[in-house]
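Now read these lines:
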Amino acid sequence: MNKTIKVYLACTGVGIINRGIETFARECFNGLHSTEGLQIELFKGAGDEKLDEHRLWNLPRNGKLAPFLGKFIRRNGYVVEQLSSFIQFVSHIKKGKPDIIFYSDSNLGFQLYWWRKQIGIPYQLLFSNGGPCNPPFTRTDYVQQVAPFYRELALKAGEPPSKHFLVPYGINVPDGDPLLNHEERQNIKQQLGLPSDRPIVISVGWISAIHKRMDYVVDEVAALPEPRPYLVMLGYMDANSPPIIDLASQKLGKDGFTARSVPYEQVAKYYQAADIFVLGSLKEGFGRVYLEAMIYGLPCIVNDHPVMRYVLGEQAVFADFSKPGAMSTALIDLLERSQLVEDRIQRKEFVRINFSWQSLAPSYLQMFRDCLAHDTNA
């Protein structure tokens, strides 16, 4: 009989910011918490202390002190946030003696690797590579690769296959039909201050020209013939965001778009109000937002890349976003089609079968068991 495995899931950004790795950590804990044979505890940067949830003291990346101190070590506030949580996390490790520390924040992981002998607990380090980082992976014991593309890159670089597990990100898939009737959608649009007489195109991610390429999204929506759909951009906003908002104001008009940063739990309503999901990035570590959109039945227009093909299967429209006009052409085609109820239900079912926690929990448990079966500290 397999023993119960104790896993400490650490992510300092949980409660502070909602990027892919933070929402993954939050949902991973919720999704695996009741799994038989597994005792998982979450260590987060902010929020209430609850059963098996612990708040680590830290200097948050979005405060004033972390970026200031980061200048002295030539690093950013995100690194300072991770490093500042280390001492308290070590006290939890010494007290709880976990079998595995499961993490996505690489700088925290480096400290746990360097100081493991001094800490005195022979935990295994399992790095979740959703960022993603490139090989070599010399300062961790094992790596969760969330898409075949990145596992293949690691193996081509000479990494041992036994060190890299292919287990995708999971996601919470709510019960019920993802399709709301016309009146329900109109009510949600009114609640959110969105127009009721125009199709809604939504893009969720960092509102920046970097990586998520929101400038490309704005340009492609602006290239559509009048009357254009209304563009909703949701995501993290920082110093890179004002140029995107200025561009959208210039090309779409102030009544042609909205750019907002909202709590994660409110994003679902925007998906329910939307008609089409787009993302301008040329590559992704995984792309949980694709799954979020499909849970609510939305058709997705994405760049043609192996990771997107793996996550979305045959459920999306793929185009070459390195070329101007690729997204706008796909948008015109989709806007002219009738959105069938069966298609929306099929998209949600695809996510449930392939990426729900119920479907993936056995794979995560087996990954944890395999980490201990090849204990590098034994």
Summary: The chain has a mean pLDDT of 93.
